[in-house]
Input
Amino acid sequence: MNSRERVQQALQHNEPDRVPFDLGGTVLTSLHHKSYRALREHLGMPEVEPRLLDIFQQIVAVDDDLRQRLQVDASYIAPQPPAAFYIEIKELPGYTCFYDEWGIGWRMPVDGGWYYDMFDHPLKDAETIAEIEHYNWPDPIDPARFVGMEARAQHAAQVEGRAVVIGSLCSGIMEMAAWTRGFARYFSDFANDEKLLVALMRKVMELKIAYWEIALRAVGEDVDVICEADDFAGQFRMLISPAMYRRIVKPLHKELFDFIHARTRARLFFHSCGAIHPVIQDLIEIGVDILNPVQVSAAGMDSAELKREFGKDLTFWGGGVDTQGVLGSGTPDDVRRDTRKRIEHLAPGGGFVFAAVHNIQGNVPPENIMAMWETLQEYGVYN
Output
């Protein structure tokens, strides 16, 4: 059984030979460049210059030698940058900064900075739907985005024998609305200017649909997993009410997911952090097949309960170890205990691809990463 077959079996809610393992198979299951360097050194592997998979999160594309060493089962195919845009890093007092193709400003402290955070939002002063429509939006079908996508997917599926995961144009429709609008205006729009907010989210959705039309045609039958995302929950509850989600956002998510499902047999992977339990059934209803990151430390997100309640309908891609309270700050023995517990909760019956809860952060000791991996090797085998 190769990696692709292993993941496909898990996605079909069958038990393969072992629980599939993902590290770097999505933009949400990789490592910060600091932890990546430390892990390679710990394993006695050659020093390399990490290739950033995501400049905002400072996470890396996992190199082939480490993927082979750790038996990673998934390969990530991301769209390329548009031809007419490149990131230009500039300096502000105490920061490096840049503007992305959406016009959002990002900055990172020069001293001690680990990530880029937003500091400027291009639509923060927009008052009309016309301003939304006439904004200089990125071109979702710029041919440069798709250069090499077909060949990379074919190589990953047919030569490497790994499951193929295709990345989206951008973050979620809610996230991009918040990032272009600014969080203060975005949240107030739910109460004060719903029409403008829906117009903004619909515009992002339309750009995504245009992108997926070409991307799905390019990768064809070589794709196994389609990545989409939207973060709308915190540690203890959702950031908007479940009723507001169902009335305002759910129809847009459904329209996007229906479009994707109509054009591929690949499973739909949906990333949503935090305490999203109140709307998990809604996500299942509108076509989500795979849930990530399975934030087991958030309210209502107990791994055993999630498996009992939703395990017949969802594959859990993540949830393999509590990154918030264990992986970064615990001992290797703490990591082993937590990892074993999550495997016992989520692995039975298939429907589980092992990954840490979200990207492994830069403060995680390599000993803890290997304790996680070694525990998976010991307890993640099916009879």
About this structure: Residues 194-219 form the longest helix (26 residues). The chain has a mean pLDDT of 97. The first strand starts at residue 51 and ends at 54. The chain has one domain: 3-85+123-379.
